[in-house]
Specification:
Blueprint: E1 3-8, H1 16-29, E2 34-39, H2 41-44, H3 54-68, E3 76-79, H4 85-94, H5 99-102, H6 106-113, H7 120-134, E4 140-142, H8 148-165, E5 173-175, E6 183-184, E7 187-191, H9 207-215, H10 232-244, H11 247-258, H12 264-290, H13 293-322
Parallel strand pairs: 1-2, 2-3, 4-5
Antiparallel strand pairs: 6-7
Bound molecules: adenosine monophosphate (AMP) and tryptophan (TRP).
Adenosine monophosphate binds near residues 8 and 180.
Length: about 325
């Protein structure tokens, strides 16, 4: 049976891009597959942060994910640093990871442009990501489009390890939604991102803030690049509609667009209503969960205990294959 693994950084509230590109798929996949979801706190050490804020950020991520519908009875949700085997395997994998591949990572290039000096962790980030996935021998990884390149590295690392030390890891594949790259509403040339101030609609934003952001969304910027192609802003509204609205609503607006009868005001209003319809119960659940932090911690800790025993089995096998067996 397929095993699903995915992760998200505890770097602030989750936005509708995270929901559309990844978490909506997590919720769907848990109906049919064994799923592990991870709050990757070690990954988030690669960018500057306040240590005293970290516990709250991890809790916020857990609340967001559970509120979106991850069911702890079906899926495991845990914190990366609670299972130290992630970093142990990461070192091992860094000794088979080709630097040539890592040098090509666009996320590394983008992030390293924004800082005065570049730490090694930022560079090694995709290797830790590979360790997250391979530690459980997961084969399906639901992520947004920006992670596809990192998954290519994971597959390359798995291949190299298997080649050098014998068949050990499956080669995991990304699983994308139809909205794998949501753009910033006010600037559809840029990906919606937590790290760009004001670029994202957060799941926890007020109704009013959501209405305003969608109302102000950029639709047409000059003539289309090619005649007959949808402008990026309008395409973005359609991507969001596909995630948040019933298929009939999406199809109706698509029909309007094809007949040249689409009114931006109407699609924006409909998107707002549909998004609020999906987000209000999520926000309500989040409020309920936030009142029970002890219960959330128990979910995270129980999952980590279960996963730690699975991780130890893989590490035993890895040590054996590497010849790290003296005096045993
Ligand atoms: P991050 O917030 O970078 O930890 O991303 C968590 C998940 O959300 C990853 O699977 C990303 O690929 C996905 N994601 C982040 N931003 C977007 C976006 N603008 N559109 C679609 N998916 C996204
Ligand atoms: N790099 C991912 C992101 O920024 C988060 C992540 C870490 C992840 N480990 C993972 C995603 C393993 C999928 C599988 O979004």
């Amino acid at each position: 049976m397929s095993l699903v693994f995915s992760g998200i950084q505890p770097t602030g509230a989750i936005h509708v891009g995270n929901y559309a590109g990844a978490i909506s798929n997590w919720v769907r996949l848990q109906q049919e597959m064994d799923c592990i979801f991870c709050i990757v706190d070690y990954h988030s050490l690669t960018v500057a942060y306040e240590a005293k804020e970290m516990p709250r950020r991890v809790m916020d991520a857990a609340l967001d994910i559970l509120a979106c519908g991850i069911d702890p009875e079906r899926s495991r949700l845990f914190v990366q640093s609670h299972v130290p085997e992630h970093t142990e395997l990461s070192w091992v994998l860094s000794c088979v990871a080709p630097m040539g591949e890592l040098n090509r990572m666009t996320q590394f290039k983008e992030k390293s442009e924004r800082v005065d000096w570049v730490n090694l962790g930022l560079y090694a980030y995709p290797v830790l990501q590979a360790a997250d996935i391979l530690l459980y021998k997961a084969d399906v990884v639901p992520v947004g489009e920006d992670q596809v390149q990192h998954l290519e590295v994971t597959r390359e690392i798995a291949r190299r390890f298997n080649h050098q030390f014998g068949d050990t890891f499956p080669e995991p594949k990304p699983r994308l939604t139809k909205a794998a790259r949501i753009m910033t509403l006010s600037d559809p040339s840029r990906k919606m991102s937590k790290s760009i101030e004001g670029s994202a609609i957060m799941l926890t934003d007020s109704e009013d803030a959501i209405r305003k952001q969608i109302k102000r969304a950029v639709t047409d910027v000059g003539p289309p690049a090619e005649p007959g192609t949808m402008s990026p802003g309008v395409a973005n509204l359609f991507s969001l509609l596909e995630v948040f609205a019933p298929i009939e609503v999406y199809a109706r607006f698509k029909g309007d667009y094809e007949r040249g009868e689409l009114r931006y005001k109407d699609i924006k209003e409909s998107l707002t209503e549909e998004m609020l319809r999906v987000l209000s119960p999520i926000r309500e659940r989040r409020r309920e969960l936030a009142a029970k932090p002890g219960e959330v911690c128990r979910i995270l800790k129980d999952s980590a205990a279960d996963l730690r025993s699975r991780a130890r089995v893989t590490m035993g096998e890895v040590r054996e294959k590497l010849g790290l067996t003296a005096c045993q």
